[in-house]
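Can you give me the bound-state structure? Components:
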Amino acid sequence: MTRTIRSRFSKRSLQALRKVLRFNDQGLMPTVIQDAKTKRVLTLCYLNEAALAKSLATGTVYLFRRSQNRLMQKGETSGHIQIIQQVVVDCEGKALVFLVQQRVAACHAGYFSCYFRKLDTGGMLKITDRKVFDPKAVYKT
Amino acid sequence: MTRTIRSRFSKRSLQALRKVLRFNDQGLMPTVIQDAKTKRVLTLCYLNEAALAKSLATGTVYLFRRSQNRLMQKGETSGHIQIIQQVVVDCEGKALVFLVQQRVAACHAGYFSCYFRKLDTGGMLKITDRKVFDPKAVYKT
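Here's the bound-state model for the whole set.
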């Protein structure tokens, strides 16, 4: 059994990031969520400043869900939250990477990563992962 | 010495992607570039449809440089091109991951990855990589 390392960041952390980050013209910061253990890219999400503040303070990923126009915790319905281990900033302050510990799976379709379809050179999109949970059972309502 | 696997994709590949991709309202597709060997995230770039077509056909990354409003090959000045090994599509068709072989380094600041600054929990941004090339020597003009 491995111990979960959850990084909760001080208030100074948000101040430090504010100095270098340049949110896009919709006030959002594209953030690559990467599994700390396997290094697989899990998903790409968008954080506004409130979501970033909440993510840093709690050590779990919060995002701005554009389709619903609201702040939410990643995994709030499913319980499949993401525990932040590292926050890494790009050279231009236009994107972040969060290295996380993923509970169960990141994708609402039942796969560990949202990137479960691989393009082959002949032009076929192939599912290369197996499902790790049943979306119908998890998202009942 | 390891052999470079460069994947050149057929015209059918672009057609297959067109069916599932939803470019954003600026006509761009956010694409996470990940090093195939180390699995490090190298950069996040934005491809319009022409850049995607050219990337697939050549097996090297082309992008739409928003600040210059033009199509360019990643690494065209430095020679630090990215050779595509895998193309992976997210569940909603809103983002891609390219697994690549990186020549020299991805970042214009001289680091292997654009994500060379790590936030510590006390609020300090620390450079955690070493430079692998001298930007002044590479970008002379």
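A couple of observations. Residues 50 and 71 of chain A are 8 Å apart (CA to CA). The longest strand of chain A covers residues 82-89.
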